[in-house]
Amino acid sequence: MKIRENVPISTLTTMRLGGAARYVIEIEEDKDLAEAYKFAEDKKLPTYILGGGSNVIGRDGGFDGVIFVNKLHGIYVIDSDPERIRLCAKSGDLLDDLVEYSVKLWNGESYGYSGIEALSKIPGTVGAAPVQNVGAYGQEIKQTLHSVCVYDCKDNCFKHMMADELDLGYRHSIFNTGDGVGRYFITSVTVELHKNWLKPPFYTSLQAYFDERGTKEFTPQVVRDAVAEIRASKLPDPAEFASAGSFFKNVYIKEEEIPAAEAKGIPVWDGGKIPSGWLIEHAGLNGKEFFGMRVSDKAALVLINESAKSYADLAKARQAVIDAVYEKFGYKLEQEPMELGK
Ligand code: EPU
């Protein structure tokens, strides 16, 4: 267990903004957790858990508390029958490494188990996946999540929780709402994956990719490669550009509001989802820069930190985008990433 003092949050998060955190502790083994929470309790400081920092924005005033950086690693096959397999991954592993593992596993007939291949190349850790029920290209972790192991810092003990106890919804779980915030450190995640589970038609843009290429044989690896290529062509490479993935949530409207939206020419999917990327694009904001933050020209949902020096710059840029979309379409966009500090 390594303890560091006065570490800028900008160095721990992919948006690269934010003042200093008072302490940072690297959690390398499950057994570090009790000691790490005791350290924070003795100092009467709040705690915050970071994985890859790809969905958290640091604020300028820094964090007068203890950040736990998750360094727990390992992927294990824990149970299997001819049709299914359960894989358990420690929460500090990259989600993409778990996906890679799952598509390369021999299933008795061929390579690959299905269920998370569409989550390929999502930045971030395994532990972050249940927190906001990550999803992309037609899959959400909710569909395959079996259970999680957590350290509960309220009861000071480890607990095993089944997926249906986690209230998983769109970018939502018990871990990012109400009393659950800050209470649990997820130590491992178990997913249940299936043999021969791939059923076309796939998510619209994924299916279009296959149709263009005449692809008719689908394996988890084929889907993974397609998603990786679509993401690389649309989303800015996190290694090169500072961003936090989709910066705005999609808008969900009620059934009775759908005709009015459609009358304005706004696309409405899946009984009420309005793609916020479409709204931003059609408000003419692609490629525009505000206060050092650029709206990606390829994926309008992504804000890229070109030269913003502070969270204050980001807040002004965010408001400019929200206002422009509201003026044009009457929908109020909400931020997707979480925030840390004051
Ligand atoms: N669209 C545009 N312009 C854009 C983006 C989207 O017009 O710049 C429209 C298009 O009509 C497109 C539709 O929106 O067909 C849907 O776009 P896409 O499938 O790319 O998905 P999204 O709604 O923009 C969501 C997630 C992404 C995820 C993709 C793919 C949210 C906030 N974002 O984006 O997640 O990768 O679906 O499944 O739900 C993330 O959360 O960081 C993230 C990248």
Q: What labels would you give this structure?
A:
19 strands, Uridine Diphospho-n-acetylenolpyruvylglucosamine Reductase, domain 1, Uridine Diphospho-n-acetylenolpyruvylglucosamine Reductase, domain 3, 342 residues, 8 helices, binds uridine-diphosphate-2(N-acetylglucosaminyl) butyric acid, 4-stranded mixed sheet, 5-stranded antiparallel sheet, alpha+beta, Uridine Diphospho-n-acetylenolpyruvylglucosamine Reductase, domain 2, globular
Plain-language structure description:
This protein is an alpha+beta fold and 342 residues long. The protein folds into three domains: 2-70, Uridine Diphospho-n-acetylenolpyruvylglucosamine Reductase, domain 2; 75-194, Uridine Diphospho-n-acetylenolpyruvylglucosamine Reductase, domain 3 (2-Layer Sandwich), CATH 3.30.465.10; 243-340, UDP-N-acetylenolpyruvoylglucosamine reductase, C-terminal domain (Uridine Diphospho-n-acetylenolpyruvylglucosamine Reductase, domain 1), CATH 3.90.78. The protein has helices at residues 32-42, 95-104, 128-131, 204-213, 220-234, 258-263, 276-282, 311-329, and strands at residues 2-8, 20-27, 47-50, 56-58, 63-70, 75-80, 84-90, 135-136, 139-140, 145-152, 157-162, 184-194, 242-246, 251-252, 273-274, 289-290, 293-295, 302-305, 338-340. A hairpin with a 2-residue loop joins strand 16 and strand 17 (293-295). The mean pLDDT is 96. It binds uridine-diphosphate-2(N-acetylglucosaminyl) butyric acid. Uridine-diphosphate-2(N-acetylglucosaminyl) butyric acid binds next to strand 13 and helix 7.
